[in-house]
C-alpha cells in the first residue's frame, strides 16, 4: 500500500489552488486545440512547452497533460457536428456521430462521446496506477513481427467485419496502401512515388486527407442537395445529458470491450488511432444492432471514443516507465521531461515519486474537470447545428483550410484537401467505403515497416510470424476475424440455398 | 511581464552596437526531425535559454519539418534565400540526405553559423547479455545464422553506416534493422529483438539507468569526459572501442545554419547569440546530460570541418553503397 499513500500525497500536490487553475486553463486550451483540425494535441503541447521552462516540473506537466485531455475531448466535437475529425483518432467517431447530429441528436451524441472518453481515460489511468511496472514489461515483448501482427489484427477486425461490398472495401483499402507508400521509405531510405515533386516528399498527411475525404466532401454533398438543413431539431438543454446517461448502462459490454482494446493498444504502442478503429469494428460485429452502425447508432460513438481515450491515456505509461512515447503528444511531453531535468524511464518512479504520483493524481482530476467543462458546453455546441447551413458551410471550409495548412505550413496541402474532397464525393456517390482507405493510409506504412523489419531479421523467412505464442495468437485471431464475415455469409447462403452469390473471402 | 520583456528589449537595443543587425520579428528555428528527438531537444534548449536569459529581443520559434529525413527542412532553407529570420539545426544529415536521396539541396548554398558540439555513438547491448567487450559480440556474430541483428534509427544514415563499417572492419556479416528513431531501437534492444544498437548517449541513457541496456564501448578516439556519477552509470568509465580492438570511430556534428545570401552582420548576430548561449549553466547541463563532446567552431574553422567531414562521409557511404545512383 506504499503506492496508495503515494497517490494520496499526489492528490495533495495536484489539488493545490494554482495546480487546479493550471488544470482548468489546460483543459480549455486543449478543447480549442482539439476542435481546430490540424492544430492537434502534439502541436498544442509543443507550442506551450517553452512557456513551462520557468515553472516547477509538476505544475508544468499538469498544465501540459491537461491540454492533452482537453484535446482528446475536443476532437470529438467537430467529428460529430460537421463530419470533420479534429484529431486522427476521432475518425471512427464520425461514422455514427455525424448521422446522429443530422437526425437532431447532436446533444446526445456529444454527451455519449464525452462520457465514453471519460470512461476510457479513467480505465487507462487505473491501469497506470495499479499495474504500471507489470504492463510496462509486457510492452517490451513487442518486436517487429508482433507489431505487424497487431496492425494485421486492426485491419482484419475492421475490414472482415464490414458489411459493405467486399470488392469495394478491398479497392478502397488498396488505394489507401498506395497513398501510404508515398514519401520517404524508412527501410530503404529512398523516396518513393514522389515524381520529383518536393511537396510529395512529406507523403500524404493523414489529417489533410481526412479533412478532405470527410469534411469537404460532406459540404459538396449538402450543397448538391440544395443546402438541405437537417439539424434544426437539435435540443439545447442540459437535460439531454441526463437522458443520455440513463441509457448508457445498457452498453456496458461495448464500454468494457473498448476499454480493454484501448488500454492494450495504448501500452503496446499501437496507438489511439488503431484502437478507435478496432473498437468500432468489434462493436459493429458483436452488437445486436450491428446493422444500424453507420446510420446513427449511439453504440458506434461510444465504442471508438472509449477505445481511443483508453489508448491515449495508457500511452503515457510506456513513456513514464520506459521512456518510449506511445503517441506523438507523449513524445513531446517526453522532450519536456528531459528539459525540466527529469530522465524518463524505470528510475523515474523511484527517484521522482512526487512528480510521478502528482501527475497520476492530476490524470484523475484533469479528466473529471475536463468532463464537467465539456458537458457544460454541450448545449452551446449543439446550438451550432441550428445555424443555417448556408452560413456555417463557408466557415467550416475556412476552418478546414486553416487546419490543412497548419499540419505542414504548406499551401499545397489546401489544394490536396480540396482534391480529396472531390475524391470523397465520388467515393460516396459510387458507394465505396472511405474508412478502409483512411485506415490503410494511417497504419499502412507502419505495418509495412514492421513487416520488412521482421523479414530482414529472419533472413527472409516467414516463420517469424508464428515463432512465439504472442505473435501466433495475434495472427490466428486476425485470420478468424478476417474470415468470420465471409464464412458467416457462406453459412447463411447455404441455409437459404443460394439466392445471390456469396463473396468468397476478401483475399488479403 | 510584458512590460518587463519590453523594457529588457529596450535596454538590449540601447546597449547594442549602433551598426549591429538585430532580428525584427520572431526567428524560426527549423528542426529537420520530429518533436522529442535529439535535434528537437537542442533547438528547444536553445529557445529556452534565449528566453530565460533575455539574449534576444525577438523570440525563437521551433518548427519541426521531419519529412524525407530532413530533406523537407533543407529544401525550406534553400528556398528562403536572404531570410535572416530562419535557422536550421543540423547533424551529419546535412550531407548524408542529399548524398543518399538525390534531393537537390547542398549546404554550400546555406550560411554555416556554427558548430556547437559533437555527438558520440556507442555500441549498446541488453543488460543481461553475456558480452563483456565488442569483440565478444563480434565473435558471436561470426557464427550467427541468420546474421546478427543490430538496430538503429533510419536507413542509409549514421547508424546504418556505423553497422556497415564495423562489419567491414571485423569481416562479419551483420543485419542492420532500421527503426523510425534511435529511441525505438533502444526499446527494441531492451526487449531483446536485436542484439545491439549504435545509439547516441541521449537515445539509450534512460534504458541504461533503468538497468535494461548497457554500453560496451564508445566509437570515439577517446573516452567520454563526463565523470559525474549518477546511480550505477558513469559515462567516463565506458572504454573507447579502440581499447577493445575495434578501430572504427564516428562522431556527428550538431550545428546551426542560416539560409544563403544573408549579410555578415546578420550572421554575426547569431554567432554572438550562440556563443552567449553556450556560456550559460543550462547549456553546460544540457551537454552533460546528453554526454555531448563540447566542440565549438565558427567561421572558417566550421567550414573547414564541414568540407573534411563531408569528404569522409562521401567515402564511407561510397564503400557501403549508400550513394544515390541514377
Tell me what you see in this structure.
- The complex is a heterodimer of chains A (508) and B (326).
- Chain A is an all-alpha fold and 508 residues long.
- Chain A contains 21 helices and two strands.
- In chain A, strands 1-2 form a two-stranded antiparallel ribbon.
- In chain A, strand 1 and strand 2 form a beta hairpin.
- In chain A, helix 6 runs parallel beside helix 13 and helix 6 runs parallel beside helix 14.
- Chain A is globular.
- The C terminus of chain A is likely disordered.
- Chain B is 41% helix and 20% strand.
- In chain B, the strands form two sheets. Chain B has a six-stranded mixed β-sheet with strand order 2-1-3-10-4-11, sandwiched between helices. Chain B has a five-stranded mixed β-sheet with strand order 7-6-8-5-9, sandwiched between helices.
- The termini of chain B are far apart.
- About 3% of the residues of chain B have low confidence.
- At the A-B interface, strand 1, helix 15 and helix 20 of A face helix 2, strand 2, helix 3, strand 7 and helix 7 of B.
- Chain B: This is Tripartite tricarboxylate transporter substrate binding protein.
Amino acid at each position: 500500500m506504499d503506492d496508495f499513500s503515494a497517490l494520496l500525497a499526489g492528490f495533495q500536490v495536484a489539488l493545490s489552488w494554482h495546480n487546479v487553475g493550471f488544470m482548468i486553463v489546460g483543459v480549455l486550451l486543449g478543447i480549442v486545440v482539439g476542435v481546430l483540425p490540424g492544430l492537434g494535441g502534439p502541436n498544442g503541447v509543443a507550442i506551450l512547452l517553452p512557456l513551462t521552462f520557468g515553472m516547477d516540473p509538476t505544475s508544468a506537466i499538469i498544465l501540459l497533460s491537461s491540454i492533452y485531455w482537453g484535446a482528446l475531448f475536443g476532437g470529438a466535437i467537430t467529428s460529430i457536428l460537421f463530419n470533420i475529425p479534429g484529431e486522427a483518432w476521432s475518425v471512427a467517431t464520425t461514422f455514427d456521430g455525424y448521422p446522429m447530429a443530422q437526425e437532431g441528436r447532436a446533444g446526445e451524441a456529444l454527451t455519449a462521446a464525452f462520457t465514453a472518453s471519460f470512461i476510457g481515460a479513467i480505465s487507462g489511468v487505473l491501469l497506470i496506477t495499479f499495474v504500471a511496472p507489470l504492463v510496462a514489461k509486457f510492452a517490451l515483448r513487442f518486436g517487429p513481427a508482433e507489431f505487424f501482427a497487431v496492425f494485421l489484427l486492426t485491419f482484419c477486425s475492421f475490414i472482415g467485419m464490414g458489411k459493405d461490398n467486399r470488392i469495394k472495401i478491398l479497392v478502397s483499402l488498396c488505394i489507401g496502401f498506395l497513398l501510404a507508400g508515398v514519401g520517404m521509405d524508412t527501410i530503404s531510405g529512398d523516396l518513393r512515388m514522389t515524381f520529383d515533386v518536393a511537396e510529395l516528399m512529406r507523403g500524404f498527411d493523414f489529417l489533410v486527407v481526412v479533412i478532405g475525404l470527410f469534411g469537404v466532401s460532406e459540404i459538396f454533398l449538402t450543397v448538391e442537395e440544395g443546402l438541405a438543413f437537417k439539424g434544426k431539431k437539435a435540443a439545447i438543454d442540459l437535460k439531454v445529458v441526463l437522458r443520455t446517461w440513463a441509457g448508457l448502462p445498457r452498453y456496458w459490454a461495448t464500454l468494457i470491450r473498448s476499454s480493454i482494446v484501448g488500454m492494450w493498444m495504448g501500452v503496446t504502442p499501437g496507438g489511439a488511432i488503431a484502437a478507435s478503429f478496432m473498437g468500432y469494428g468489434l462493436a459493429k460485429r458483436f452488437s445486436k444492432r450491428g446493422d444500424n452502425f453507420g446510420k446513427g447508432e449511439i453504440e458506434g460513438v461510444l465504442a471508438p471514443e472509449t477505445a481511443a481515450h483508453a489508448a491515449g491515456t495508457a500511452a503515457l505509461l510506456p513513456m513514464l516507465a520506459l521512456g518510449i512515447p506511445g503517441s506523438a503528444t507523449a513524445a513531446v511531453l517526453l522532450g519536456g521531461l528531459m528539459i525540466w531535468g527529469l530522465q524518463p524511464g524505470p528510475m523515474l518512479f523511484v527517484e521522482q515519486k512526487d512528480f510521478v504520483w502528482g501527475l497520476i493524481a492530476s490524470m484523475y482530476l484533469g479528466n473529471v474537470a475536463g468532463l464537467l467543462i465539456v458537458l457544460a458546453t454541450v448545449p452551446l455546441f449543439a446550438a451550432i447545428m441550428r445555424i443555417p447551413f448556408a452560413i456555417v458551410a463557408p466557415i467550416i471550409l475556412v476552418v478546414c483550410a486553416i487546419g490543412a495548412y497548419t499540419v505542414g505550413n504548406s499551401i499545397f496541402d489546401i489544394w490536396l484537401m480540396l482534391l480529396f474532397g472531390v475524391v470523397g464525393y465520388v467515393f460516396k456517390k459510387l458507394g465505396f467505403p472511405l474508412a478502409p482507405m483512411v485506415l490503410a493510409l494511417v497504419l499502412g506504412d507502419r505495418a509495412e515497416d514492421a513487416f520488412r523489419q521482421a523479414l530482414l531479421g529472419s533472413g527472409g523467412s516467414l516463420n517469424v510470424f508464428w515463432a512465439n505464442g504472442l505473435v501466433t495468437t495475434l495472427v490466428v485471431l486476425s485470420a478468424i476475424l478476417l474470415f468470420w464475415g465471409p464464412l458467416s455469409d457462406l453459412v447463411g447462403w447455404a441455409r437459404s440455398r443460394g439466392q445471390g452469390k456469396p463473396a468468397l473471402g476478401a483475399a488479403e | 511581464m510584458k512590460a518587463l520583456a519590453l523594457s529588457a528589449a529596450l535596454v538590449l537595443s540601447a546597449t547594442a552596437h549602433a551598426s549591429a543587425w538585430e532580428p525584427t520579428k520572431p526567428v524560426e528555428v527549423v528542426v529537420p526531425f520530429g518533436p522529442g528527438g535529439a535535434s528537437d531537444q537542442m533547438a528547444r534548449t536553445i529557445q529556452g535559454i534565449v528566453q530565460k536569459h533575455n539574449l534576444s529581443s525577438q523570440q525563437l520559434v521551433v518548427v519541426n519539418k521531419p519529412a524525407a529525413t530532413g530533406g523537407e527542412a533543407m529544401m525550406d532553407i534553400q528556398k528562403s534565400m536572404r531570410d535572416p529570420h530562419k535557422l536550421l539545426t543540423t547533424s551529419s544529415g546535412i550531407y548524408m540526405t542529399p548524398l543518399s536521396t538525390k534531393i537537390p539541396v547542398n549546404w554550400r548554398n546555406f550560411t554555416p553559423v556554427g558548430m556547437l558540439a559533437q555527438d558520440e555513438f556507442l555500441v549498446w547491448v541488453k543488460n543481461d547479455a553475456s558480452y563483456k567487450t565488442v569483440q565478444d559480440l563480434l565473435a558471436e556474430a561470426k557464427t550467427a545464422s541468420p546474421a546478427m541483428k543490430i538496430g538503429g534509427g533510419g536507413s542509409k544514415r549514421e547508424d546504418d553506416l556505423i553497422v556497415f563499417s564495423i562489419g567491414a572492419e571485423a569481416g562479419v556479416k551483420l543485419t542492420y534493422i532500421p527503426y523510425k528513431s534511435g529511441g525505438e531501437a533502444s526499446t527494441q534492444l531492451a526487449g531483446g529483438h536485436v542484439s545491439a544498437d549504435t545509439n547516441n548517449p541521449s537515445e539509450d541513457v534512460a534504458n541504461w539507468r533503468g538497468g535494461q541496456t548497457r554500453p560496451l564501448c564508445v566509437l570515439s578516439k577517446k573516452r567520454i569526459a563526463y565523470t559525474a556519477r549518477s546511480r550505477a552509470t558513469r559515462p567516463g568509465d565506458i572504454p573507447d572501442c579502440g581499447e577493445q580492438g575495434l578501430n572504427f570511430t564516428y562522431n556527428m556534428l550538431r550545428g546551426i545554419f542560416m539560409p544563403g545570401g544573408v549579410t555578415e552582420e546578420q550572421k554575426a548576430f547569431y554567432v554572438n547569440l550562440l556563443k552567449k548561449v553556450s556560456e550559460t549553466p543550462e547549456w553546460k547541463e544540457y551537454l552533460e546530460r546528453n554526454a555531448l563532446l563540447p566542440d565549438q567552431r565558427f567561421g572558417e574553422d566550421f567550414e573547414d570541418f564541414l568540407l573534411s567531414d563531408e569528404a569522409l562521409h562521401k567515402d564511407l557511404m561510397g564503400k557501403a553503397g549508400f550513394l544515390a545512383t541514377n
